[in-house]
Task: inverse folding
């Protein structure tokens, strides 16, 4: 792991360095089980995920690359734009339960410690108000891109948010 980080530190620009460090960290916590689960989730997206993917794939939104069902830091994000470290989640009804809301909040806080911002939409928002969803994502992309240009590296962990192996539940 130390060798990977030393190689990362030799990258040419600060922005490349940030993205490479996040990439290395995510691989370190990405187990074969998580990778397999992400692959399976790509094969059976929800209807809302399919609709949003049509709008995000192929750099269709502000020429930024999004990945779907992207494993990062021990979690799987529905959509992730590495260039600005923005995750987009499309939530079904289960995410309205108190326990799931708390879990999602904890997960977002954990990822924020690595400079990854998560935004959430319901299935209904994606299905019925796509233009509003896309405009909100564009605004967040602009904000994150502006912030990341000034950020030398992801912040180190500062809170007691459990690491993926310590969180107890199954994603």
Result:
């Amino acid at each position: 792991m130390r060798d990977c980080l030393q190689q990362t530190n030799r990258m040419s620009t600060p922005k490349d360095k940030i993205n490479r460090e996040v990439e290395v960290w995510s691989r370190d916590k990405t187990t074969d089980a998580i990778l397999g689960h992400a692959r399976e989730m790509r094969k059976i997206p929800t209807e809302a995920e399919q609709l949003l993917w049509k709008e995000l794939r192929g750099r269709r939104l502000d020429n930024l690359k999004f990945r779907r069902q992207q494993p990062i830091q021990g979690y799987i994000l529905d959509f992730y734009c590495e260039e600005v470290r923005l995750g987009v989640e499309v939530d079904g009804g289960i995410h309205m339960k108190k326990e799931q809301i708390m879990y999602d909040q904890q997960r977002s806080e954990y990822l924020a410690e690595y400079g990854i911002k998560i935004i959430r939409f319901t299935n209904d928002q994606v299905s019925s108000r796509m233009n509003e969803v896309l405009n909100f994502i564009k605004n967040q992309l602009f904000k994150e891109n502006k912030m990341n240009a000034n950020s030398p590296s992801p912040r180190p962990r500062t809170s007691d948010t459990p690491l993926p192996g310590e969180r107890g539940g199954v994603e």
